[in-house]
Amino acid sequence: MKVSKFYKDRLEYLRGEIEAERISYGEIVELQSLVRYIEPGDMLLLEWAGVPESVAIESPRKAAR
Q: Are 23 and 14 in contact (CB under 8 A)?
């Protein structure tokens, strides 16, 4: 699935907030809503989105259903 620039930019912004240790609860909720746009191997974002590792390895898009 081709991800639009908007979603890629948003995910990269959220990654920066995680890495800077200043992500807010609202941004975590936003990240959870964007789970279907996270690359399957991106364990940092998948973990913060609350996707179980077993599902993340298989396909994070299943968690978005």
A: yes
